[in-house]
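Handout, section B. The chain below has 187 residues.
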Amino acid sequence: MRKIALSIIGLGLITGCTVADELEQRNAESAAVAMEFMKALKGELQAAMQEGGPVNAIQVCNMRAPEIAAGFSEKKGWTVARTSLKYRNPDNAPDAWERKVLEQFEERKAKGEDPKQLSYAEVVEADGTKTYRFMKAIPTAAVCLTCHGEKIDSSVEARIQELYPEDQARGYNEGDIRGAFTITQPM
């Protein structure tokens, strides 16, 4: 491990780039991808809502959101996804690291931090492999309450139950942390 660290430091000195610079760059790139993901998903959700209402928009989260994430993952060579403490799709359940960060986001929000500004990054080592991990909170907007709020229309409810029989993603209020975009980059 010491040899790898020295190699990284040595490479940084040769190229004029420090480890801190590399992490800052990874953070900026991850934040940019999270924002692109959010904009793409929001745009498709808004179009689906206009075209066929909330029942139509559920299909965007069900089919298009994973496709958008897969597209970013393939383009960047990273793992790009969404997760939540109260997930709708079991494929989006948080791993232990993500759960810890989501719980920290909740604590930070409780102390007054704006969910729109919450993000976290860390280099994690597991089984001798280092990865860069990044998460950006997804705040609950008013429009999200149509499918994720406390009161859900019966037609929306029926479609959610059809697609997500194990749904936990309800009971949110505007401004709550709905979940997070999560990015893993190989080091």
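Note. The helical segments are 2-15, 19-76, 96-110, 145-148, 154-163. Compare this with the example in section A.
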